[in-house]
Write a structure and sequence with these properties.
CATH superfamily of the largest domain: Umud Fragment, subunit A
Strand content: 25-35%
Distance between the termini: 17 Å
Shape: elongated
Oligomer: single chain
Mean pLDDT: 78
Helix content: 10-25%
Radius of gyration: 22 Å
Structural class: alpha+beta
Largest sheet: 6 strands, antiparallel
Strand order of the largest sheet: 1-15-4-5-13-14
Length: 238
């Protein structure tokens, strides 16, 4: 799990909210009214900080839980792997340091494993010369930040046994080609195929750039639509 600034904001929001809300419930159960002058110091701090950390939390955007230990345990700072656990599997959604700028984290889906030959042609994938199967789910109707993709085709892609949704714009151009994945590297692509800066443009991801496996959406925020995206919170990433 990625214990970063976002994680600690979530913890602070929960704790301050529970302290403040719990105190109000306690007063109600005793038939007493809130008196700011007599509130405990812990409640005073919680009441003051709760709206602040909540606003900061929501301003940041969408948050995803990342298991940093799925692919092994690394020494912090040096990023040296000291324990091998699992290898990335085709279809995994991974967080990694962008090869062109390792200070930036990207999130994409693993398409090609070391030694694979990946072909992307006419909006279709081929893994080791085997065509990937697709099922049309109709026309996509986006809202908020996804509104620009309205009209794209929503497809269920079966990536050698891993099923997930992708978006395709048949009127848009995108990079095509044949990619052979070097040893110790992975080829990744975005599910929004015609709007993704991925391996088609800059190559493969070295194993040492992997941060972890993304598996759960715990907060979704969209300023252009409805604020907190309750329909996405709690979604297991597949």
């Amino acid at each position: 799990m990625d214990f970063d600034f976002s994680f600690f904001l979530l913890v602070a929001t929960i704790i301050t909210g529970l302290v403040w809300g719990g105190y109000l419930l306690f007063l109600k159960s005793k038939g007493r009214v809130f008196d700011e002058a007599n509130e405990p110091w812990a409640v005073e701090y919680a009441r003051s900080f709760f709206p602040v950390v909540l606003i900061v939390l929501l301003l940041i955007g969408d948050f995803i839980l990342v298991n940093k230990f799925t692919y092994g345990i690394r020494l912090p700072v040096f990023n040296t792997k000291i324990l091998e656990i699992n290898k990335p599997a085709r279809g995994d959604i991974v967080v990694f340091r962008y090869p062109k700028d390792p200070t930036v984290d990207y999130i994409k889906r693993v398409i090609g494993l070391p030694g694979d030959k990946i072909t992307y042609e006419n909006k279709k994938l081929y893994v080791n010369d085997q065509a990937v199967s697709y099922q049309s789910l109709g026309t996509y109707h986006g809202v908020g930040q996804g509104e620009d993709m309205t009209g794209a085709e929503l497809l269920l892609e079966n990536l050698t046994g891993v099923e997930h949704n992708i978006l395709i714009r048949h009127d848009a151009s995108s990079a095509e080609g044949v990619y052979v994945v070097p040893k110790g590297n992975y080829f990744v692509m975005g599910d929004n195929r015609d709007n993704s800066n991925d391996g088609r443009y800059w190559g493969t991801v070295p194993e040492e750039n992997l941060v972890g496996k993304a598996f759960f959406i715990w907060m979704s925020w969209d300023w252009q639509h409805k604020g907190v995206g309750l329909d996405r919170i709690g979604t297991v990433l597949q």
